[in-house]
């Protein structure tokens, strides 16, 4: 059994080495999403099945025995003939290996050289766990402390005059029983909220949303490995903004215009009412193709970022996804108006090949 476990461990290590070697490919594809569980993902790893002999009844005629004719069945009934041209390549199959999300995050951190994050906010949560180092007079029999119970019975016997040194005998009464107990303690847990915002106007197509989906998956995976408690909010906007669930965030498409300030105002409202910066580490990510309704609304966005949002968050990240219909002007305005603002990070994603560099820019500051 030990040998089997050793072989299995060696096999898993080989598989993990293959995953680490191919991680850049996984950073630009959506292969992992359909296989994602609560704590792990199934990673497909290509392999080639080795040829093998198959034994059977050789008494039947057909191609391979005799000359044969065009259309004769091959190892099957007459209805099993194949249409179309035959392929030349070998058959490829996928071996799926389950990998913990924390382990996947560690691979991401090594690949992109990401620093560990120093939490800013703290949440104190009362935790009942811990060591049973307290004694009390009530409790279940399973937690009865024998030595303390006998000691209490001896003290009572001596105090009441019942103790006889010549014939020492201790009979604990119910009032002498002592029990182990633990004290509730406030255990600090670092907490974070991730706020994803995305433009869903008509200029953001399916490919742009797929890029956003890939980025959001890896960002969430890394931040979940850094914090004990994570909450995720999804905001979509065109000319107006609204909170949605995860599935709607990646599949919703509107045909209206684009007013970016509506998303920033809703984001600020959520922070003010639900996530105090004193208790939460706040990460805001906005994805757009760079189009905005007007220069006036862009000025409103700059004011919201400079005076309200950026002072409250650990980091505000803007990812501009290239689109055939987007002007890309908003990133230029951000870089010009808020140049030198430490907590603001912008990145341009022209195609899937830029995803890894965008993630490195967003998470590489260690905030």
Describe it.
This protein has 367 residues and is an alpha/beta fold. The chain has three domains: 1-48 and 93-113, no CATH class; 134-181, no CATH class; 189-363, von Willebrand factor, type A domain (Rossmann fold, 3-Layer(aba) Sandwich), CATH 3.40.50.410. Helix content is 34%, strand content 21%. The chain has ten helices and twelve strands. It has helices spanning 2-21, 23-26, 101-112, 146-160, 206-226, 246-251, 260-274, 295-309, 329-337, 355-363; strands at 40-48, 92-100, 123-127, 134-136, 179-181, 185-189, 191-199, 229-237, 241-244, 281-288, 315-321, 344-349. A six-stranded mixed sheet has the order 9-8-7-10-11-12, with helices on both faces. A two-stranded antiparallel sheet has the order 1-2. Strand 7, helix 5 (206-226) and strand 8 (229-237) form a beta-alpha-beta unit. Helix 5 runs parallel beside helix 10 (355-363). The longest helix has 21 residues, at 206-226. Mean pLDDT is 80; it is low at 76-82 and 122-127.
């Amino acid at each position: 059994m030990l040998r089997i476990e050793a072989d299995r461990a060696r096999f898993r290590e080989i598989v993990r080495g293959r995953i680490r070697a191919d991680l850049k490919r996984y950073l630009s594809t959506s292969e992992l999403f359909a296989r994602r569980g609560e704590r792990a993902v199934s990673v497909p790893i290509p392999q080639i099945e080795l040829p093998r002999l198959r034994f059977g009844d050789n008494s039947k005629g057909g191609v391979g025995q005799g000359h044969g004719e065009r259309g004769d069945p091959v190892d099957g009934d007459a209805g099993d003939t194949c249409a179309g041209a035959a392929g030349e390549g070998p058959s490829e199959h996928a071996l799926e290996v389950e990998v913990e999300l924390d382990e996947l995050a560690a691979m991401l951190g090594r690949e992109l050289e990401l620093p560990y994050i120093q939490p800013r906010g703290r949440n104190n949560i009362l935790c009942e766990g811990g060591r049973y180092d307290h004694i009390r007079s009530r409790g279940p029999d399973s937690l009865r402390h024998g030595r303390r119970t006998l000691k209490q019975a001896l003290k009572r016997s001596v105090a009441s005059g019942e103790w006889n040194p010549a014939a020492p005998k201790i009979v604990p009464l119910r009032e002498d029983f002592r029990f182990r107990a633990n004290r509730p303690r406030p255990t600090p847990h670092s907490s974070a909220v991730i706020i994803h915002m995305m433009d869903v106007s008509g200029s953001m197509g399916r490919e742009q949303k797929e890029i956003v989906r890939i980025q959001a998956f890896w960002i969430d995976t890394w931040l979940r490995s850094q914090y004990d408690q994570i909450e995720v909010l999804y905001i979509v906007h065109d000319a107006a903004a609204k909170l949605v669930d995860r599935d709607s965030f990646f599949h919703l498409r509107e045909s209206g215009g684009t007013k970016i300030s509506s998303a920033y105002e809703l984001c600020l409202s959520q922070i003010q009412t639900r996530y105090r910066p004193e208790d939460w580490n706040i990460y805001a990510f906005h994805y757009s193709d760079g189009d905005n309704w007007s220069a006036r609304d862009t000025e409103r966005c700059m004011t919201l970022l400079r005076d309200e949002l950026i002072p409250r968050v650990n980091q505000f990240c803007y990812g501009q996804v290239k689109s055939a219909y987007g002007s890309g002007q908003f990133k230029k305005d951000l870089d010009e108006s808020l140049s030198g603002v430490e907590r603001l990070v912008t990145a341009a994603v022209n195609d899937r090949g830029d995803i890894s560099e965008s993630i490195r820019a967003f998470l590489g500051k260690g905030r």
